[in-house]
Amino acid sequence: MPNDDVLALVDEGGRVVEWRRPAEELFGWSAEQAVGRSVTALLREPATDGEQRRERLPDTSAIQVKPVLHGTSVLWQVRAAQGTAPGQNTPEHKVSGWDVPGQDLSILEAVFAHSPVGLLVLDDRLRVVRTSSAAGGLRDTPAGQAGHLPGRHFTEACAFEDAEEEAVVARRVLGSGKPEVNRTVRVLRAPGGPRSRTASVSYFRLADSHGDAIGVVVAYTVDVTERANAQHRLALLEAVRTRVGHRLNVMHVCQELVEAVVPAFADVADVEVIEDVVRGEDPPPSPVQPDLPLRRAAFRGDIGSHPAAVVRPLPAGTPFSHVLSDLRPRLVPLEKNSSWQAADPERADIIERSGAHSLIVAPLAMHGQTLGVVSFYRGRQQDPFEQDDITVACAVCAHAALCINNARLFMREWMIASTVQRRLLPQHPAAQATVEIAPLHHADPQGGSAWFDTIALPGARTALIVGNVAGQGISAAVTMGLLRTALHTLAALDLEPDELLARLSDTTARLVAARASLPPTDPLNREPLTASCIIAIHDPVDLTCTIARSGLPEPVVILPGGTPADLSVPPGPPLAEADNAPFPATTVSIPEGTTLAMGTATLADQLLAPSGPLRPLLHRTSATPLPHIRDTLADALTHNHPTGETLLLLARTKALPADQVLTCDLPADPEAAPIARAATRRQLNAWKVDEETAFTTELIVSEFVGNAVRYGTPPLRLRLLHHQKLTCEVTDTAASAPQVKHARTIDETGRGLHIVATLADQWGTRYQPQRKTVWAEQPTGASAAPP
User: Fold this and answer.
1) Paired strand residues for 456
2) Cα→Cα distances 208→65, 124, 211, Å
3) β-pair partners for 572
4) Residues 6+ apart with CB under 8 A from 655
5) b or e along 499-513 (b: 16 or more beta carbons within 10 Å of the residue's beta carbon)?
6) What values do phi and psi take at 452, rounded to 5?
7) Residue predicted with more confidence, 480 or 678
8) What per-residue confidence (pLDDT) applies to 749?
9) Those residues with Cβ within 8 angstroms of residue 606's Cβ, 6 or more apart along the chain or in another chain
10) Do residues 706 and 751 make contact, with C-beta atoms less than 8 angstroms apart?
């Protein structure tokens, strides 16, 4: 509305503070004569040529009066309605500064006079223009006396706890035109009132005939407390059902509970659980023994320092011990110097520091079995608990008890599975002279079934193994034990890594078939079996490492200078894959002092990948002790919070000293056996092997060389290793393997390998690309340690 139709500004006392030219023309009073005088007196007294001007005065219904903010004061603005000429009457009426058709005036007056809902009409600056007669519940304004409110700002007139937030809502409605309906708003507690109240508030924009915003109507019902409380209780129960029970750990579930109810339901929440339940054991039936220890599993509340998570029995004669005894909830008004608070000074301290005025103690129980007790405290600005709140507390604790019991059952199974896994893992891995190892194992709180192994192989070689069975629980741990046992059995056959994985995959497939044949009601029937493994065989004589993998990430080698490098080991298919695809093996040369890092998939992105954030921690030289690298990685992984079970095997290679190895090329004719025996005798004398062992070794060498000359294909080679055992190896290029025969009495041949099998600790055949090696191992039998 243009400013040139403004006639005057009048203060709250009715005195003119500004008199503009249109007012001079209409009323005949100059600004000097009018300013400071009462507007009522001006209208009563005629001015010069007042009779002539009076004929042109507009009808009072054509004058608009509305409050406006002028500086820091509220003034009344008097202006002529648009389109109204002096002396021209209009059939319209003015209600609080807005044009209202005459036929609707009586309706509006009736609404403002008799509406049971409080109404506030605000201008575009959120100043109160008009109120209904039912506008009670406002700040210092009882119903029937709301007439004192016009001119006040909305935040001064309303009695809402967060008046500024409601003012923001009103401005948003004024700007957007989108109404806000049925907002639940807390009302300030009346002085001396027992409880706070809740109002239902709605906001609607007012617009003029041009569609411009001119104000806001605020409609509210002051006391919808019961409805709001019911909605709040339903929201609380829904929040508890949604937020409590996500984690399968008793302590974590209790923490979720207190986070869900504070401050939504209570100022302080304290959860105490029977100690046996925390450990996963069965809860005792009710009533429990008076001295049964409970652990404070969770606590939440703004009281400064929180009480310690102690384990203690509940003091007798308190509401807590009574609830634990009969499993009945209690609403306890808190009074100073009560007898039970004297018996429980720790609770008394919580009550004093929180300013609590009421308490609900509810049991955690299922099917007559007692899990613990929960204490809810209210104080400060919250209303005291009511009887209806006991029902809410019981519903909250019933859901929490179910979640705690589920976590207890899981924890018991997890503890059994963890024990099984620990027992199945190598407790004290056998020390290998040619490989130094440092395993790193971070167990997953949810359980897991990863394992590692180091297996000594013939020829001073070592098999390094990392495996993983997906899933948690006892079944996964048992499956891990079965696969680990199968690997140890297969390793005794002296197979290459690709062959080992192929045989292990066959074993896994048989386990999968066994699960599928279980009855449909067996949970194991529906549980998939997924396993992965990586095998590396280190040869300390040839200084090579042959690797094959299934499912696990590529290993990393750290050369003696400290430079890490990725090994391009092609991935094989998952174990128990139906297409029988091969497991490709890769053989790489590695110098002495090289460190090999193999781990589970949880380390792929953080450590084993070239861009992993922890990859620089592997940049260490061979002078850095392996346990130091392991401990550094363990600290870094703890701070990075890896998800899932983490297992890393660090292995640093060593070469077998040259003076512990004899290699001798042999001719492919009958002279090969004498040459081999002579070379063996000389080397055994140098190693100071006793006569009996030397004689047995010569016999074994003679038999192996004779079979190689008779049935093998040149070139032939003899190799003796004096390591932890005395090993004899004869290599040729034939594909056929020698077999033990049971010769008859009249047979002249066929007894050699039978004699070897009797004399040696173990013997066998190892196939490699384009060659085979027949070997036998015996105790060293040295009179002195090897040089």
Assistant:
1) 462
2) 15, 12, 5
3) 550
4) 434, 540, 541, 543, 592
5) bbbbbbbebbbebbe
6) -140, 160
7) 678
8) 46
9) 612, 613, 614, 637, 640, 642
10) no
Using CA atoms, how far residue 138 sits from 40, 187, 296, 543, in Å, is 31, 9, 45, 90
Q: What is the residue whose two structure tokens read 């210092």? A: 140
On whether the CB atoms of residues 127 and 225 are closer than 8 A, the answer is: no
Classify residue 122 by its DSSP letter: E
Q: In the beta sheet, which residues pair with residue 741?
A: none
Residue-wise pLDDT tens digits, 320-374: 999 998 999 999 988 877 888 888 888 888 888 888 989 999 999 998 899 999 9
Residue 731 forms beta bridges with which residues? 717, 773
Q: How far apart are CA 349 and CA 306, in angstroms?
A: 11
Pairing of strands 118-123, 213-221: antiparallel
Provide the pLDDT for residue 47.
56
* 263 cis-preceded (ω within 30 degrees of 0): yes
Question: Cα–Cα distance between 324 and 631 in angstroms, integer?
Answer: 46
CA distances from 217 to 88, 213, 729 (A): 31, 11, 101
8 A C-beta contact, residue 217 and residue 204: yes
pLDDT the model gives residue 532:
93
**Start-end of H helices in 554-646:** 626-640
Q: Which helix (H) or strand (E) holds 467?
A: strand 461-469
Query: Other CB atoms closer than 10 Å to residue 25's CB: what's the count?
Result: 12
Question: Whole-angstrom Cα distance, residue 300 to residue 259?
Answer: 7
Q: Which residues pair with 296 in a beta bridge?
A: 272
Is the separation of the CB atoms in 599 and 533 below 8 Å? no
| pLDDT of 242 above 70 | yes
pLDDT tens figures, 124-136: 888 888 787 666 5
Under 8 Å CB-to-CB from 367, ≥6 apart: which residues?
Answer: none
If one counts every other C-beta atom within 10 angstroms of the C-beta of residue 421, the result is: 25
| Chain mean pLDDT for the chain | 81
| Token pair for 1 | 């509305």
- Residue-level pLDDT at 363: 95
Q: How far apart are CA 233 and CA 227, in angstroms?
A: 10
Interatomic CA distance for residues 280 and 447, integer angstroms: 15
Instruction: Classify burial at 19, counting beta carbons within 10 Å of its beta carbon; exposed 0-12, middle 13-18, buried 19 or more.
Output: buried
In angstroms, the CA 754 to CA 757 distance is 5
Question: How many angstroms separate the CA atoms of 419 and 423, rounded?
Answer: 6
* Phi, psi of 453, rounded to the nearest 5 degrees: -150, 150
CB 287 within 8 A of CB 446: no
672-686 vs 691-711: helix axis angle to the nearest 10?
Answer: 150
DSSP letter at 306 equals P
Which one, of 516, 505, 515, 480, lies nearest residue 579 by Cα?
505
Degrees (nearest 5) of the Cα angle 206, 208, 214?
50
DSSP 736: -
Alpha-helical regions (H) of 385-525:
387-424, 474-491, 497-516
Distances (CA, A) of 115 to 94, 131, 329: 20, 11, 44
Q: Cβ atoms within 10 A of the Cβ of 483, count?
A: 23
For residue 85, which phi and psi values (nearest 5 degrees)? -90, 155
Q: Which residue has the higher pLDDT, 8 or 640?
A: 8
Is pTM beyond 0.90? Reply is no
Contacts of 632 (CB under 8 A, 6+ apart): 617
Tell me how far apart the alpha carbons of residues 145 and 137 are, in angstroms, rounded to a whole number.
11
766, 539 in Cβ contact below 8 A?
no
Supply the angle between the helices 752-759 and 691-711 in degrees, to the nearest 10. Answer: 140
- Inter-residue contact 320 to 344 (CB < 8 Å): yes
Q: Which two tokens stand for residue 79?
A: 């202006």
β partners of residue 363: 373
User: In the predicted model, what is the mean pLDDT of residues 108-121?
Assistant: 72
Q: Residue 774 is encoded by which pair of tokens?
A: 């027949």
Q: Enumerate residues 6+ apart whose C-beta is below 8 A from 462.
A: 432, 434, 435, 454, 455, 456, 537, 538, 540
